[in-house]
Design a protein that fits this description.
Elements (H helix, E strand, L loop, with lengths): L3 E7 L3 H5 L6 H7 L36 H8 L3 E6 L11 H18 L7 E6 L5 H11 L5 E7 L13 H10 L3 E4 L16 H22 L2 H4 L5 E4 L5 H15 L11 H5 L3 E3 L9 H10 L2 H4 E2 L13 H4 L6 H15 L6
Parallel strand pairs: 1-2, 2-3, 3-4, 4-5, 5-6, 6-7, 7-8
Length: about 350
């Protein structure tokens, strides 16, 4: 089967990345700890060594482009979309100049050093939501590069939420260049979670990615983003699956009672949600497979789900997460593992 991984992470070398930034950001990032530019307190993800993933060097070493083909072979994937790692914290700063410079520099850095569409190595244009007009300029600037397959909004920290009309320049630009919008969840660390006072990484990592996907789906639907930008495709990554049917039913129930508060919608929220795509990682593991089968049925999983690994993060998934499911036939497995992604993303030449 042809396998696409639209959510791998490249451990960017911040000193190399600095070469693609304007001054004074270039000197700051090249000579100081990157934590002075973007905070990055992620907690003890390995539980003092209890979780063992000896095949990955995360978070102790930067990635090298030469390593990617071997990693793809190990994972069993034919296309790998390399998203940032430290730059995921881009959404935690309110500083417009920093967020714009880093997003622009990351795109240039990846194009120059990493991307290789002929070998199946792609990335996404990171859109800094802190400054939507300049984010749109970045989208137009890099959209023609064949290595860029989508526009990515990192959701943790967006205020107002991403359905607000202030972000329209981003959506308009993505629609103009015919690239899908991918919402990548983050915000799972104790220090970055919006509700303060949680004591353990277990708490905020359980809630963080889920929280921001719930907020983003709700905001962009109620504010009518799919109707205002009807040619856009949307995907949500890295929050699992079980929240999807729950939110479908809650939004439908609220909408039936309060349609006047979502005047742009022409269908039930759940109908729009079945048009979206969802990354599978981290896929829940119920004790009985029949419960997972029910979720797949409720969300039309064979047509809405897109397999992803999240490699090299500590909880990454392998394609066997899908191939081992007894309730899926080979055709449905092929769609989830690669077919749906190929219909969603722009993979030129593949």
């Amino acid at each position: 089967m042809f396998v696409v991984d639209p959510d791998a992470h490249y451990m960017e070398d911040t000193r190399q990345l600095a070469q693609y930034l304007p001054e004074p950001m270039r000197t700051r990032l090249a000579t100081m700890s990157p934590s002075y530019v973007l905070s990055n307190s992620t907690g003890d993800r390995w539980v003092m060594g209890r979780i063992q993933r000896p095949e990955v060097n995360y978070p102790n070493a930067y990635s090298e482009p030469e390593e990617i083909p071997g990693i793809m072979k190990f994972l069993g994937v034919d296309i790998s979309v390399q998203l940032p790692n430290r730059m995921l914290q881009l959404s935690t700063t309110g500083q417009k100049d920093i967020s714009v410079a880093l997003a622009d520099g990351f795109a240039a850095y990846m194009i120059d050093r990493v991307l290789n569409p002929a070998e199946g190595v792609y990335s996404m244009i990171i859109a800094p939501f802190q400054d939507p007009p300049r984010a749109a300029e970045i989208i137009y600037k890099y959209a023609d590069n064949p290595g860029m397959c989508a526009v990515c909004l990192i959701t943790g920290g967006a205020s107002p939420p991403l359905g607000d009309t202030r972000y329209d320049p981003i959506y308009q630009a993505a629609q103009d260049v015919q690239l899908p919008i991918v919402y990548h969840a983050n915000g799972g660390s104790v220090d970055h979670f919006p509700i303060k006072g949680f004591q353990q990484f277990l708490e905020t990592h359980t809630l963080g990615f889920l929280f921001y996907n719930l907020a983003t789906v709700t905001s962009m639907l109620v504010q009518g983003v799919p109707e205002r930008f009807p040619r856009l495709k949307f995907a949500f990554q890295e929050a699992g699956l079980f929240y999807i049917p729950m939110l479908m039913h809650r939004l439908d129930a609220a909408y039936r009672r309060r349609r006047a508060e979502a005047p742009l919608l022409k269908r039930l929220p759940s109908e729009y949600m079945r048009d979206f795509s969802y990354g599978t990682q981290p896929m829940e593991e119920p004790n009985e497979e029949k419960h997972l089968e029910m979720i797949f049925e409720m969300i039309d999983g064979p047509n809405t789900l897109v397999f992803s690994t999240d490699y090299p993060h500590w909880d990454y998934d392998l394609p066997s997460k899908i191939t081992s499911l007894g309730f899926l036939n080979d055709e449905d497995k092929a769609k989830i593992l690669g077919g749906n992604a190929r219909n969603l993303y722009r993979f030129e030449g593949r």
